[in-house]
Amino acid sequence: MSSPQKRVYMKTFGCQMNERDSSAMQVMLQNRGFGVAVHPEEADLILFNTCTIRDKAYQKAMSDIGRARVHKHRPGVMIGICGCAAQQAKEQLLKRFHHIDFVMGPDQIFRLPMLLEEIEAGKRSSATDLIDDPGTYVFVDGITETDIHRGTAFVTIMKGCNYSCAYCIVPQVRGKEVNRDPSDILDEVKSLVCRGVKEVTLLGQNVADYKGLSASYRLSHLVRVLEEQTGIQRIRFTSPHPRDIDDTLIEAYAEVKSLCRHIHLPVQAGNNRVLKIMRRGYTREHYLQLIEKLRRCSPHLAITTDIIVGFPSETKEEFEETLQLVEAVQFDQIYAFSYSPRPGTFAQKNLSDDVLLSEKQERLSRLLEMQRRITREKNERCVGTTQDILVTHYDEESAHHCSGRSSDNRLVHFTGTAAMMGNIVNVRIVRALGNSLEGELYDNLQ
Fold this sequence. Notes:
This protein has about 450 residues and is α/β, with parallel strands linked by helices. It folds into four domains: about 5-125, Rossmann fold; about 135-260, Transcription Regulator spoIIAA (2-Layer Sandwich), CATH 3.30.750; about 270-380, Transcription Regulator spoIIAA, CATH 3.30.750; about 385-440, CATH 2.40.50. Helix content is about 35%, strand content about 20%. It has helices at about 15-30, 55-65, 85-90, 90-95, 110-120, 145-150, 170-175, 180-195, 220-230, 245-255, 270-275, 285-295, 315-330, 345-350, 355-380; strands spanning about 5-10, 35, 45-50, 80-85, 100-105, 125, 150-155, 160, 180, 200-205, 235-240, 260-265, 300-310, 335-340, 385-395, 400-405, 410-415, 425-430, 435-440. Helix 8 packs parallel to helix 9 (about 220-230) and helix 9 (about 220-230) runs parallel beside helix 10 (about 245-255). The model has no long low-confidence stretch (mean pLDDT about 95).
């Protein structure tokens, strides 16, 4: 009689890179015979893929990891911590959480099967070495059938970051930039298209600095090659640094049909002094020039951004300049956060966190209120238009069974069928819902 199938439960925190890493680990484990557990109490292996970019995400992960000790009463259960928090804290996590069997940094995902063998042999393990050598770094493929069914996939094209923004811990936990071979990316996207994927999102901590195998091979070259040689219908990328947005990439928005009409371009602040102490390497004026160039090439381009409020020494007057920039640019959406010092960063070591929490909260509230108005107004202008929507979710119990994304990354809900999952359908927008849109099916499946 065969033994019951082992199952893995995975909890993912943080960015799209972590989501992609979790998908790769899931496939790796499925290839070793693991099934998927919906709840941790059903799992033989529990993995926490963690984030340490912001304190809130880090604390949430630590809380969930602490509670996981209740599952160790079941014989043979293995628990591991992956991701950026594992890379930052390393063996300290094994000392803090005695029920944890291993910690594994993002650069060591390829070693997961070997770590499990060590644990089964009774050894607690740690694998947290950063790999910055292109010759030895391993880009791990893998996308789950669930993502294939949705018609969309993340494709990693590089890892790491060579910048040194004052607040950011990414270079410490993801290492230096390593570029993936363009031919490997091309092969993966071709394979995904053959499996039914309609849209890929190219991932990198600093994706616009992608250089292929030489400095002359840029992200714009890759995007054009993917359109010409793979048959992919939609291409996105995230997240670029403003310093790396060159004219060839801007022109791609006018010339590459499959490049989605959306860019996420983090600005972080609207005041030049604050940008300088953040060590961002550009000015407010440079950023606004980029926006002007992008909209000249693609007038209907949706632009989203990240903003930090209450950075050390930011004055009320300097924050007002951020509000003025948001009003001037008219972002389609923003992701805004109060500053929280991250251990080991330049800001944490050298700058005083001197903006009161109450002041940070007030600034954040004002910023988000302004953006809610702008987003609502932009969404209302979509009413009456017809959009191509990639259907990524279907729920029989919801009022609108289907939801998906337009080319400009707006979330649209409409009544449809399960057969539409993973396909692009024509939807007429009938109502604005604040952060999303409501539509009616306009045409048959494309």
